[in-house]
Design a protein that fits this description.
By secondary structure, the chain is an alpha+beta fold. The protein has three helices and eight strands, in the order ααβββαβββββ. β1 (65-69) and β2 form a beta hairpin.
Length: 170
């Protein structure tokens, strides 16, 4: 978010003519730039909040299932949203917190998945909540997946590591 505010501020300042070249005086161009930056942050925060609340996360006790995406069988939420694992995580800890978790919402645990081979469990997150795991990987959804069956987070290198869709079977 800081980057968005910085870019917005620099953009407004770049478009503001030097003092003395305007016929109409802009009282405080710095305040104008700051206002635009605050507005940009508000829009971004609203977008993140609305995407995070879009229903792509799994509630506690949720049920997971599998689906085919291309040639892979992947684990998805009950609503069909692709689940991901984060390479820097460990079997006992999630390393995606704060702003990372706003973009990669953790799947709340525990979860079930009828007929899916593998080990389901939970880890305790930094905020004290439980996050579901599959075969030792904490599970996440991605706010960039707007619809069930999308996997736009697969292979993405963000927040300090690679993100992978959770594959099951062969």
């Amino acid at each position: 978010m800081i980057e968005v505010a910085t870019v917005a501020t620099l953009g407004v300042l770049a478009l503001t003519p030097p003092p003395g070249t305007l016929r109409v005086r802009v009282p405080h161009p710095g305040w104008l730039a700051g206002g635009v930056a605050v507005a940009a942050l508000a829009v971004l925060a609203g977008s993140v909040a609305s995407a995070a609340g879009s229903g792509s996360t799994v509630s506690a006790g949720g049920s997971l299932r599998t689906t085919r995406l291309g040639s892979a069988t992947v684990l998805v939420s009950a609503k069909g949203f692709t689940l991901y694992w984060f390479a820097p995580d460990t079997p006992t800890a999630s390393n995606c917190n704060g702003s990372c978790a706003a973009y990669w919402p953790p799947v709340k645990g525990p979860v079930t998945a009828a007929g899916v081979a593998g080990q389901f469990g939970t880890v305790r997150r930094a905020d004290g909540s439980l996050q579901a795991t599959y075969n030792g990987h904490p599970l996440y959804t991605y706010i960039g997946d707007a619809h069930p069956g999308e996997d736009s987070g697969n292979g993405v290198n963000l927040n300090g590591g690679l993100w992978h869709q959770v594959t099951v079977g062969g």
